[in-house]
Amino acid sequence: MTSPGTATADELVVLLDDDGTPVGTALKREVHHATTPLHLAFSSYVVDPDGRLLVTRRAWDKATFPGVLTNSCCGHPGPGEAFEDAIRRRLHDELGITEAGPVVPLLPDFRYRAESGGIVENEICPVFAVRVPADVVVTPDPSEVAEVRWMPYAQFHDLALTHPEASPWARLQVEQLGREVDWSALLDGPAARRSAREG
């Protein structure tokens, strides 16, 4: 597991077979290429108490999908690392977020494949929601994130479906989520209470 604040040069990703069963690991820096093997990832939607979504723009010097507008935070759980732990780790590393509520599944079976500049993303990538307090401090790591902004989810939904700079995974995710999401019911409901108890 990569500890918060440490370099990710030796970060391992979990390789999967077509059924989603782990079959090994590989260095993250070596796994993304023209024939990227299927591997495990996650995608998260950070929401404030007013239901606004934290939208990010990937850093312009990222190897894949530089400068795209996308959801709050993505990453790869390490071998044996729980999704919730991985999400909290990346929220801290990428966005400087240290206070976050329960992590709640949105699209547990999400999977996608996309190409950028000859490099392929090929992931089973469950999608989660996380609530943060109204006074959350967001301090992006400029090597990961070029820009952050808060917006109503419906506005992000429309942007992801129509904006040429939107990430392909966000486009697919909002297609599945729809334009209206009841964040209060989701983040205050039974799934959130289970997550809080299990955390």
Give a quick set of tags describing it.
199 residues, alpha+beta, Nucleoside Triphosphate Pyrophosphohydrolase, four-stranded mixed sheet, 6 helices, globular
Structure commentary:
This protein is of the alpha+beta class. It has a single domain (12-183), classed as Nucleoside Triphosphate Pyrophosphohydrolase (Alpha-Beta Complex), CATH 3.90.79.10. Helices cover 26% and strands 31% of the residues. The protein is built from six helices and twelve strands. It has helices at residues 28-31, 83-95, 153-162, 168-177, 183-188, 190-198; strands at residues 12-16, 22-27, 39-40, 42-47, 52-58, 69-70, 73-75, 103-107, 111-116, 119-124, 127-131, 145-152. The strands form four sheets. Strands 7-4-11-8 form a four-stranded mixed β-sheet. α3 (153-162) packs across α4. The protein is globular and about 40 Å long. The chain starts with 11 loop residues before the first strand and ends with a helix. Mean pLDDT is 89; it is low at 1-7.
